[in-house]
Amino acid sequence: MNGFYSLWTAPYFKGNPDGEYSLRDHELLMLLLSVAAYQKYNGSTAMYADGPAAKYILDTGIEGIFKNGLKDLNVSPDIDPKVYWAAGKLEALKAEKAPSVMIDTDLIIWKNLDTVFEDPATDIAVIHREEINPKIYPGPCSFEMKKGYSFPSSWDFSIEPANTALLYIKDEGFKVRYVDAALEFMKMSKKTDDTLCHMVFAEQRILPMCAASEGKNIFAFCNRIEELREQRLFTHMWGHKNVLKFNGEERHAYCLKMMMRLKNEFPEMYEVAEKISILKLYRK
Amino acid sequence: MAKKYGWLDRGKNESADSYDSRINHLAAFHAGYAFFSRDNYDPEYAAFSVYLLWNGEFNSKVEPALPDGGFMIHCSPDVAERFTSYEMGLPVYVKISSSEGKIYAENMTVADHKDFYDLYFNGCEVKKPELLYYARRRDAEDCFEDEDDICREICPGAFIIHGSYQAAIGSYQSVKGGYKPANGSYGSANGSYQSVYGSYNLISFAGSGVSGGNNLFQLGSYLRGSYLWNFNNNNNNNNAGSAGFLSSFNLRSLWSGFLSGSGSFIRTLLGGSYQGISGIYGSGYKNRAFGYGSYGYGSFGGSFTDPHVYRPDLSLLSAGRDNDGDDNPNKAMINGIRPAESNLDFIPRSGRFMPSYRMIAEMGYGLDLI
């Protein structure tokens, strides 16, 4: 099954207008490991990247690791990158033909998942479902929308959101309808300072509501949060990225670990990694 | 305002490689202060979450900017007790590194005279210290500008004394330049405080928390790359149980002569008595009642005036000091040697991320599969 990643830099430049986009060492190693593992166990991958991200990928010399190549990512200027920092994923999802697997750059899939993807009962697959915590997933009336927008009456707001660090969608038509609904929500929401609830609503709550309205079945690898700790399929860096950002010692140790994993299990990717200047510290 | 960290900027004719090399060879330097509150001490793991105030100019040059929460040190209950008496906080030293022209904060240390405590970021919760003072030095006023706003916002009783200190407290009153507890009771700043920094959010999680039935820093839902620090100061959160700030809390003993340097000032306090119940040991430990008066004056730090210099006396080989025999002050950070923590052998190395905190800090899964 083909997979794809995306890098959208507009959220970074929103906060760092004069900055130069790059991935930190742990972020880059995670991406390399993710791509290597997916291509070993599941299928080819592509990377959707906007201009600065594509430049970074080319400058770093990793464009060749994506067997399906580097593709242009275009996100509507009507979307506020500060509020909708993951909008790039949805635009990439729209561009990638289904069936396919959208993978976060901090997620590693360690095993072949074809049995799930090829199951006729699986229309959509996500990593796990989430509870409706009103602080994170408030009701629809908490969103101030522009004139002319209304939430579809077919949406059932009692349905649990779905985490899309991994998202498989079988049907192209459904995929387009879901992405369009999410992008429309983003474009039609009024200016806000919220950087969480709007984004996760658009990405993770609209998906299961759209699916339910069309009778699509969502497979979740974990139905309860607790199961995530027991599972052996995925490594999801998730919030631990933030620990690594500010904890130099931990970051160094973790980067060494990732580099060794590349060397031992994905020697071709290790050859790529050892040529990257910011990773020279971890060469063994 | 004078800028102290201009030397961290990349020169016009400086290549990225030379800049990286220059920055990477810098010694650790003073970049902020750590503040302590009993509420943030976890005696089970000897873990003390610290509230940090970073020099604003320094923090603007680091990518990503450092947050004020999520950091902790390990220290014994006795040390923790002492730290809570440092109402002006303790200096934090940061070893920075540069890669491709960008500055990153690497290892950090809290310095208590000749003792050093490594500062770890693990995303742990921290409650803003109830009694928070920080320097408003004439030459560093710009550093904490933003923080002033925060303090005023959440602590309506905040005020400035002598133009040098600001007390971020809720229910104290100023009396002739000193402090007096209002109605003999301590009132914490109510309400919640959320801060957002960098590219991710500080989020609140519902569910079971680390502090029993309280609602501080609870985790119940998972979101990618997000945290929530919610300073619910109105619910007597205390990791250790029911102790905490139960009675009046007056100014503690003065922190005098901690750092030599210019800019010393005299702070006159109406001493008053202090009588409280220490929460350091928690309900399952010792609760101690004690009292003392405090007044006097002290001199305070010159590090911000010359951040190049690792100013405190860092002779780690002082008598009785248990360390590895290396007197390089940076080695404590660089090589992970923790002389001040040598009495904490009961904490396994892996235990520095306490289980209850790990859940919040990691928010990742399968990390051990790598």
- The gross shape of chain A turns out to be globular
Mean pLDDT of chain B: 53
The side-by-side strand order for the widest beta sheet of chain A comes to: 3-2-1-4-7-6-8
Low-confidence stretches of chain A: none
Radius of gyration of chain A: 19 Å
Q: Find the count of extended strands of chain A (DSSP E, 2+ residues).
A: 9
Head-to-tail CA distance between termini of chain A: 33 Å
The DSSP helix count of chain A reads 10
The percent of residues in helical segments of chain A reads 25-40%
Q: What's the tally of helices of chain B?
A: 6
Strand content range of chain A: 5-15%
Residue share in helix of chain B: 10-25%
**Any idea what the radius of gyration of chain B is?**
20 Å
- What ranges of chain B have pLDDT less than 50 throughout 5 or more consecutive residues? 135-279, 282-351
Most extensive contact? A-B, 56 and 49 residues
Major sheet details of chain A: 7 strands, mixed
Number of E-type strands of chain B: 14
Describe this structure in words.
The complex is a heterodimer of chains A (284) and B (370). Chain A has 284 residues and is α/β, with parallel strands linked by helices. Chain A is globular and about 60 Å long. Chain A is 39% helix and 15% strand. In chain A, strands 3-2-1-4-7-6-8 form a seven-stranded mixed beta sheet. In chain A, β2 (45-49), α3 (51-60) and β3 form a beta-alpha-beta unit. Chain B has 370 residues and is an alpha+beta fold. Chain B has helices spanning 16-24, 56-61, 77-83, 145-154, 331-334, 355-362; strands spanning 29-35, 41-42, 47-54, 70-74, 90-99, 102-112, 115-124, 132-135, 159-161, 165-168, 172-175, 178-181, 273-277, 289-293. Chains A and B meet through α1, β9, α8 and α9 of A and β5, β6 and β7 of B.
